[in-house]
Amino acid sequence: MRPKPIKGFVKDIQCEELQDHRVLSVFTLAHQYNVGLLGIWESKEAYGRWKTRLLMRVDGVLEMQELFLLDAYKREGDAEIKIPAHIVQEIGELTRK
């Protein structure tokens, strides 16, 4: 985001799109990208619609870098690493061949 006074930044991050239940975390970063968020959407299309609304509302976004998590092995609250079912199935099929 373009640098701005803290009042403007706070106003931006309180927008409706960042209050969405699919946005799990919003944080500042000590990196070339100064704001980050973590969220879970039901599809790439739903994420795209949400992102368009966000960019129309928040002024000063200069660049975005999007990373998509494919598999989760351990999440907050998990006591141990869990192998996703589709990987367990694939391993089983490979060992049967």
Describe the protein in words.
This protein has 97 residues and is α+β, with helices and mostly antiparallel strands. It has a domain of 64 residues. 35% of the residues lie in helices and 11% in strands. Strands 1-2 form a two-stranded antiparallel sheet. The mean pLDDT is 87.
List low-pLDDT spans. none
Shape: elongated
Radius of gyration using CA atoms only: 18 Å
**What is the typical, i.e. mean, pLDDT?**
87
Distance between the termini: 52 Å
SSE series: HEEHH
Strand order of the largest sheet: 1-2
Q: Tell me about the largest β-sheet.
A: 2 strands, antiparallel
Strand content: 5-15%
Number of strands: 2
Number of helices: 3
Query: Percent of residues in helical segments?
Result: 25-40%
Structural class: alpha+beta
Provide keyphrases for this structure.
elongated, 97 residues, 11% strand, two-stranded antiparallel ribbon, single chain, alpha+beta
